[in-house]
Structure prediction request, 140 residues.
Amino acid sequence: MPRLPIKASPCPERLRWGDVFSVSERRKVGHCGGKTLPADQIIWWGIFEKRRIRVVSTVRLIMGGLAHFSVNSGARIGCHDWGLPGGYYIDLMFESRDRLSDDDLMRLGTLAAAEDTRPVSVRRKGELLAEARAIPVGCV
Prediction:
């Protein structure tokens, strides 16, 4: 009789962000004072496929990738004042001792996208925002 493979628990198909990562630190980043507000940044630690991973998540403006938010007489800056599209996305920067493959980044991004309604982009530490990969909508 053939041996059946041992199934890990929880199974990868049902894995959630909270099963892998826990919050290490919360802070505010970006320009402060005057007409700007800092953005939220969360640092997460976890083990994914036997690799210890540090994740820095930053909420950014969709247009320009800014990590601070402008305030102007109570009006939202974006679609009204500068002709920029409104909205935010989550930038996830992953750091691991071993280089994460593009497939690993996409799977981790899919875990994050399942937990939030905002768009998610993923990148490795040292990569620019322009090199980030967007998680396709409906990929969850």
About this structure: The helical segments are 17-20, 102-113. The two ends are 37 Å apart (CA to CA). Residues 1-11, 72-81 have pLDDT under 50 and may be disordered. Strands lie at 21-29, 36-48, 51-61, 68-72, 75-76, 88-96, 120-124, 133-134.
